């Protein structure tokens, strides 16, 4: 799979994977890779025990949340602990512990006679909250079904021209039972979308090439490569064909079954998207 | 003792028998006055050598660093990808990847020394290269050390910490040397920390000045563009790409990164200066002289870090000192570099849908309806931008600016509904890609003079133009390609083992012009058949 050498966002360390090329190289699954590759530090710390994190969360909410906010992002009486340099430098409670045990009475931070385990649990919860903030691939998308299903239906049957290729009693029947709302919206915008949809992903092979030689002979098949100098495809019998592209060389036609969906992106308003989604989720 | 390897005077001239700084020269235009390789003979370019790098400890590497001895060889692909632009001084190439630096004989491609750094962590996505001062080299590490090496031996002279890896800073820029200042920036926007640029002493590594990308307190310049001190102190604005320098105006030009939290602006109402800005700093003091903000109140990760290229050209018959930038937000900007005033603002891509137009001061006006919502908004460009870090080029012979662009759409979903969101605060899902383009932009109008479309590849990639009337770049399909910079005709190409991953360079050595590119884990050197 070809990935751009992009260091996005100082550099958001993700390589944007070319959707179209992902489609080209049909052998590599998942077809549309998640947008962001995991951030890879050299030595990833082991994830803390989830039970400890859970306990830490509970203790924090009851003992600390009043001042630091139940999500530790700070409140009226205590600072944000997810942005605290002390917490960021802490390992396993070694720096947080003394603050909890001794407090900073002169500054409004009371002391708590907590056990080593309780401190460790709180530290684990704070660190896992920071890790979750850092890892934007893990952010949970909330309720996206806010549109008007009636307006969505009208758009589907009218201005959207969706019915020229789809039918809610045919290919899209029961589609809402197949996908959760986020995946369904993703499928509608980009049918080769495979983000978090389970294994095996629903693969949509959208492209085919037809190469016609000056002699009139022509070859059609699955794309293997297309650039300024070469075109290659695999035909229905599995045979691989490759051609040099020159001025008087073969004519290349690219057929993209999903072109209509790509073009939709330049026409859909956000309201259309929300309304269509609200309509599609009713197709149980 | 050795003489000075790098004569500082070289830095202020167009590079000929050297490539002494990240951009070749201070202007950032990546145009070479060399013409031995030209349109009439480019077909006879031939491979001189390939050098494949071996990263990490082993094979005689000089080892430094503050981290533990790694258990095995580095596995992050960023460590084995040459994104740095090599320096070439006195027949030796100097280049780097995260935690690694090399000197290679420019005649043979053979390694002279390899230095590797034991890391404490940080994101290992890329490293832009090294800076050189006399006999000394400088590079930055993912765990935010500025390291100085002896160019002859690769032995470490000193290292100094510039930012805290625990706060998710990580450093990728190539240090830029101006006078006795080593200019170093940093990156990292996973948590909400402020950006800065520092000048260090070349001999001792001591800090000379520090410029913060945001005001630190109420009353500082720019503070009115933030709601409170807390938001500005956590406001982002990374300095993750090298800038350019005008020796006559004594100004260092730098593009700054996006504000934090990245994809939602509700806790940082206002323009958020000096994030997403092009700034001009007095190089001796680090004081801000002017700024121009391409993306006021950005909420899409479109930093303005891309190379601000310095251009001298006539506008309406008057000679002007100009600065051009192809911005991640999808616009091309031409400014007066004496004062930061807009000359041209023009869109580079057709899919762009986030702006309501251009203000009288030349700034795009963000459409608030395109900021992430819980139920999602469809935006182009995606967070990766219309373009990104790979260096563009300006050719004074054509008056055209060459840049790789891409047209993508993403959905932006608000995920952090707290009044004080943190980190990115929203999720992005890529939903479509209209391919990439190599664009040749007329700087005076912002119009696209010619365009080479890549339906399935291309996009942001390094560029080099030369007086031989050649434009060298990659096509995202593993080819190094020479274009006619006047009209986009393809004149020559060579297939490499990977996509071009850095900015190409050229120089004279022993009377021959060479072209050197990085693609994946290898450097390739080309020259004319004898």
Q: Could you provide a short overview of the structure?
A:
The complex is a heterodimer of chains A (284) and B (530). With 284 residues, chain A is of the alpha+beta class.
Q: Keywords for this structure?
A:
heterodimer; A: 284 residues; alpha+beta; Cytochrome Bc1 Complex, Chain D, domain 2; SH3 type barrels; five-stranded antiparallel sheet; 11 helices; B: 530 residues; mainly beta; Methanol Dehydrogenase, Chain A; five-stranded mixed sheet; 1% helix; globular
What can you tell me about this protein's structure?
The complex is a heterodimer of chains A (284) and B (530). Helix content of chain A is 33%, strand content 11%. Chain A has 284 residues and is an alpha+beta fold. Among the domains of chain A are: 50-134, Cytochrome c-like domain (Cytochrome Bc1 Complex, Chain D, domain 2), CATH 1.10.760; 207-256, Roll (SH3 type barrels). Chain A has a five-stranded antiparallel sheet, with no helix packed on it. The two termini of chain A are 35 Å apart. Mean pLDDT of chain A is 84; it is low at 1-43. Chain B has 530 residues and is mainly β. Chain B is built from one helix and 37 strands. In chain B, the strands form nine sheets. A five-stranded mixed sheet of chain B has the order 1-31-32-33-34, with no helix packed on it. Chain B has a five-stranded mixed sheet with strand order 3-7-6-5-4, with no helix packed on it. Chain B starts with 30 loop residues before the first strand and ends with a strand. Chains A and B meet through helix 1, helix 4, helix 6, helix 9 and helix 11 of A and strand 28, strand 29 and strand 34 of B.
